[in-house]
Amino acid sequence: MNGKDNKQNTEMGSRQTIIERIRQNKPETKPLPGSFTGNQEPVSKEQLSVCFRESLIKAGAEIAEPDGNEGLEPYKEKHFPEAVDLTDTAVRKKYSSEISKKELEKTGTVIIEGQFGVAENGAIWLDETNFPNRLLPFIAERLIILLNKENIVSNMHGAYRKIDLRNTGFGVFISGPSKTADIEQSLVYGAHGAKRLTIVLFD
Amino acid sequence: MARKNIQIGLFIPCYIDQFYPQVGVATLELLQKLGLDVRYPMKQTCCGQPLANSGAEKKAIKTYQNFIRNFSEFDYVVSPSGSCVYHVREHYNILEQTEEVKKVRQNTYELCEFLVDILGIDDLKIRFPHKVGIHQSCHGLRGLKLGKSSELVAESYSKVHRLLEKADGIEIIRLDREDECCGFGGTFSIFEPDVSVKMGKMRVHDHETNGAEIITATDMSCLMHLEGIIRREKKALKVMHIAEILNSNSL
Amino acid sequence: MKGHAAKARQFLSDNERADWQDKALWAVRQKRDVAAGSVREWEQLREQASQIKENVLSNLDNYLLQFEQAAIQNGVQVCWAEDDRQFNETILRIIRDHQAQKIVKSKSMLTEECGLNHFLEKEGIEVVDTDLGERIIQFRNEPPSHIVLPAIHLKREEVGELFHEKLHTEKGNSDPTYLTAAARVHLREKFLEADIAITGVNFAVAESGTVVVCTNEGNADMGVHAAPVQIHCMGIEKIIPRTEDLGVFTRLLARSATGQAVTTYTSHYRKPKPGGQMYIVIVDNGRSEHLGLSAHRNSLKCIRCGACMNTCPVYRRSGGYSYGSVIPGPIGSILAPVKQMKDKQDLTFASSLCGSCSNVCPVKVDIHSQLYKWRQEISEKNLFPKAKSYSLSIVGKVLGSNGMYNFSGKAARWALKNMPRRLIYNKLNTWGWGRELPEVPEMSFKEWYKKNGNERKRQ
User: Is the CB of B152 less than 8 angstroms away from the CB of C433?
Assistant: First the structure.
C-alpha cells in the first residue's frame, strides 16, 4: 500500500467517524417543512416586467429593447457588431471548452441567451446549454444577455421550480455587472467579471 | 372585574428603590388614581437579573423565590421596568414550575403594557408640553414586544407611543436610530465601560440633535446610564421615567 | 481589564475612526432593513429557513450521505476531514496529486477557521485570496475583521498606500474605482495562471449533489472555470435538502448580508468542467460535537450573512479584531465557546443582550439567548476569575434576603453621600470612568412607603 492510499483510507475512516458522531449527537427528527407558500397574490405580466426592470437597474445592469419592427438579429448587428454571439452555432463551436484561456481573455463582448429572469431581484438563469465554455460569461469585458420578455418569474421560489439541477453541470444566476464595495463600502463595477451587463428584452 | 377589585402588587426594582424613589411613587400614584387596589409588599428585593445576566443564575434562585413569595397573592404584579418584568417572565423558567410560579410569571406586567393591554387605556388625559425623545429600552421592546422593533418586517405599533402621543402639548421627536441600545446592559456597563459609555453618548447625541428636552423610557436603568453621561458632559437634557410623565398634572 | 473590553478600549481610543466604523456598518444595517422590508413575507421566510435548518441538523447524517452519493455520481471526488489538520492535509494531498503550485481561493470562512493559507504557505505553495477585501487583508497579513466585509476596518487611503507598495499604483491615489481596476488586472493574471481554484460553499443541495456559491465580484467563477481543478470546501452544516430550499435561502442571504436583493452571481456547481476535476471536501472540525450540545446546537443554523455584526451596537463600536476569534461579533461570541469555553468567556459578556442580533438573523438563531446561556454555563463550570465568582456570591446573598438588601442599600447610599468624590470615582469604579453615579435620594422607596404608604391607601 502506498502513502496516497493510506491517506485516502484515513479519510474514509473520517467519514465513518463523522457520520457516527452525528448519529450519536443529532437531536430527534424535526419535520422538513413543505414548500414555501408565502405571498401568493397573483401578479400580472405587466407588474412582473416593471419589477424586473427596476431590479436590474438597481443591480447596475442596462436594459435595451429593440422596437417591434426592428427584429433581434439586425439589432444585434447594429449595436454589437464585434460581439462573440453564442446564439450562433458556428461561434459556439469555436468557443468550446478546448479554447485556450489566453484566447478567451481577449473576449470583449459576449452575447448569451438567458433562460428566464426573476422579477424580485433581476437575476437571470443561464446554464451550460447557453454557453459552450464556462469561463466565457465571466471573463468577457461586457456581457449581453438576450431574454424573451415572456420569461419572467416573480421570485426565487418560482425560479427554482423551473430549474432541475439534475440536468446541468453548472448553472448560474447573474443579476448585474460584477461589483465590489470592499474599499470603504464604495460601489465599483467590474471587480473580476463583466464590467457591463446589458439585458436585451425581445418578444 | 371592577378595577377596585383587582389586587395589584407593586414591584419596585432595586435600583429604583435605592436611587429613584420618585419613580416608584409616580407609579403607585398613577395606579391609585386609576382606582386600583395597589399594595407594595415590604419584603421584596430584586428580580435577580443582575446575578443572572452575569452568569450566576443559580445564585439568583433565592432572590427569585423571594420574589414569588412576595407576589403570589396578587392578581397582577405591575412594575415600572420592562427589563425586570421580562426577566421574571423569561428566566424564572429555572424554578420548579408550581402553580404559584406560573401565576406570577404570567401576571407580571410592565406598567405601559398593563395600562394598554389589561386596562385598555390609551389616553390618560394629561398635559405635558415638552419635546420628548422616547428611548426604547431593549428588553421592553424586543423582549416584551411593547412595540415593533426596527429589525422586524411587520405592522408598526408602540404601546409607549400610544400612551404618550395623546398627552396635551407633547411633541415626540424623531430619532435617527429609533431603537438602538443605550449600552447600559446591566453589568455590561461595568465590565465593558468604554463600549457602554460610547453607546450611551451616541444615544444622547441622537436625542440632543433631534431637539429633545427630555428623554424618557420604560426602564430607569437605561436612563440612569444616560443621565450619568448627561451630567458628566454637563448637557441640558433631562431624563424622566415614563411613569413620571404619565403621572404628571392631569388635564 | 482584559480580553474584549481591553481591546475595545483600545479601538475606541481613536474616536473619529470609531465613529466612522459605526456609521459604515450602520449604513449596511439600514440597507438590510430596506431590502427585508421589500419582502412582505420576510418573517415567514425566516421561519421557513429556520425550520429547514432544524430539520437538516436532525437528519444531517442521512443528508450528507445522500449528498455524497449524488456528488460521486456527478463525477465529483468527495473527501471528508475530521478536523482542521486533516482538512489542510487533504487539500495539500490534492495539490500534490496534481503537482500544482499556484492556488486561487475565493472567500471561505472555513479555510480561515482551519488556517489553510498559512499551512499551504509553509509548504511553499502560493495561495492568492481573490475577493478584493480578502486580497487587501492578505497583503496586510491580517485576518478578516468581518465575515462578509473583510476589510471594513480600513480606509481608502490605507488601501491606496498598500496597493502603491504591492501593485505599484500611483502614490496618493486612493480612488476606489482606480484601486479596484488595479486589483482586477493583478488578479486576472492570478486567475489565468492558477492550477487549482478553492472556494467555500454557501449551500450544498443533498438531492442533487450541487454546491452553491454566492459572490458579487465573480471571483469564485473566474477561479473555478479558469483552473483545471476546482475544490469546494464545506462545513457539514451547509447541507440543505432540496433545490426548492435554495429559493428560501437565496432570498434571505444577500438581503441580510448587504441589503442587495441577491448577489450578482449565484453559481451552482454540480459536475466538473469537461476535462477538469472537481473535489468537494466535507469538514467537521468540531461541528458534530457541537451538534451534541442541545442548548447550543441552534447556532449551527448560521448561514454566515454577517447581519448580526452590522446591527450589533457593541461590534460596531469595538471592531472585528476586539473579539480575537475567526468569526467576530454576536454569532462569533456564541460559536467560540463551543471549543474554548474558558478562553473565550469574555466574548459572552461583550454584549448588552439587546437582542437586535436575534431579530435580524435570517435563520432565527437565538443569539442573545445563547449568550445568556453560555454565561450560566461558564459560571457553573467555575470558569470565572475568582474575584468575580466571589463578588457574585455576595450579591446573591444580599439580593436573596430582605434584611441584607435593606442594610446594604442604606450603607451604599450613605457611602455615596458622605465619601469624598475622589474616593468614589476611583480607578476601579468603571462606571465612573465616563459617567456620574446617580444622585442619592433622602430615602429609598421602601422607606418612603413605610412612612406614607398606608396613608396613601386611605385617600
Answer: no
